[in-house]
Amino acid sequence: MGRVGYNVLMQEDSFRLAVTKGAADHYAMISDVGELVEDQGQAVIKGFDAVVDWDKNDERLIVRFLKMDKKMGGKLGSLQFDLTGIDVKSGHGRSLKQPIAKAVGIKRGDAWRPKVLDCTAGLGEDGFLLAAFGCEVTLIEQHPLVYAMLRDAINKAGQGDEGLAEIVGRMDLRPGNAITTMRELESDAYDVVYLDPMYPEKKRHVSARTKKSIWFLRQLLGHDEADSDNTVGLFEQAIAVANKRVVVKRPNHAPPLINEAHKKPEASHKGKSFRFDVYPRH
Ligand SMILES: C[S@@+](CC[C@H](N)C(=O)[O-])C[C@H]1O[C@@H](n2cnc3c(N)ncnc32)[C@H](O)[C@@H]1O
């Protein structure tokens, strides 16, 4: 296509998203973006009235919606992932009382921090929060476009104030399928494996208030059933590699991801809408 920023190359029956200008080499790793099709010089997200574009001012990928779901207020708009708005400075934001901090095993008054493998990077928000608590976090994202947008958000946050730069300095984002990544890991590489698969949405929660980025992920990726190969594969590998525990984020209304006789969450740390189920390593 030859436009600034990215190229979509047709390769037999798949597409390759390659950023050609203004971005770092890691985009070369992005491949097989089956969801992008070329239409009149634009990379259109298939089945989804949106295009992937290059924001010249910000030097970042941007998704521009050509039509928006009525549930999202019907307004046109655009989307970039953003980590800079996450509260890690106020007393509440910093608080180690947050359920996610407790779930990964952080104790107040103890300087030890678990090394975390976040197998479902997504918008990077949970990984960022854990990094803000001082954890070294490796994040894996399987979807090329989500990976690219998160890479942008991490770079952008790294150019922010020193505090933000320090936090994202503890985040190591890698592309790929986390099940494969975990199979290739040295044993004891991570204390905690963190999973937050896409969950089915409760109908009454579909509202104009749904955050645009979450709505986007749902449209792009659908959701994982609790018994899908992905969910089961993630959990089984996670239990096999976590040095201390596996933490699974679930909406409060959903049952535990895995709740079999020999694999029940040992503890659950509840927040307002989500809880964090803890499965200790056997
Ligand atoms: C619900 S989102 C995660 C949101 C994230 N916890 C956050 O705070 O922004 C789930 C993400 O996990 C990714 N994912 C699901 N299964 C994966 C796998 N096997 N390997 C890598 N990424 C995966 C999806 O592509 C999606 O981006």
From TrEMBL:
GO MF term set: rRNA (guanine-N2-)-methyltransferase activity
Catalytic activity reported: guanosine(1516) in 16S rRNA + S-adenosyl-L-methionine = N(2)-methylguanosine(1516) in 16S rRNA + S-adenosyl-L-homocysteine + H(+)
Binding site for S-adenosyl-L-methionine: 196
Keyword Transmembrane: no
Protein name: Ribosomal RNA small subunit methyltransferase J
CDD domains in alphabetical order: AdoMet_MTases
Compartments reported by the entry: Cytoplasm
Record's function text: Specifically methylates the guanosine in position 1516 of 16S rRNA.
Key words of the record: Cytoplasm, Methyltransferase, rRNA processing, S-adenosyl-L-methionine, Transferase
First-tier enzyme category under EC: transferase
Taxon lineage: Bacteria, Pseudomonadati, Planctomycetota, Phycisphaerae, Phycisphaerales
Pfam family, one: SAM_MT
InterPro entries, A to Z: 16SrRNA_methylTrfase_J (IPR007536), SAM-dependent_MTases_sf (IPR029063)
Domain of life from the UniProt record: Bacteria
CC annotations in GO: cytoplasm
Major subcellular site: cytoplasm
Listed EC numbers: 2.1.1.242
Family designation: Belongs to the methyltransferase superfamily. RsmJ family.
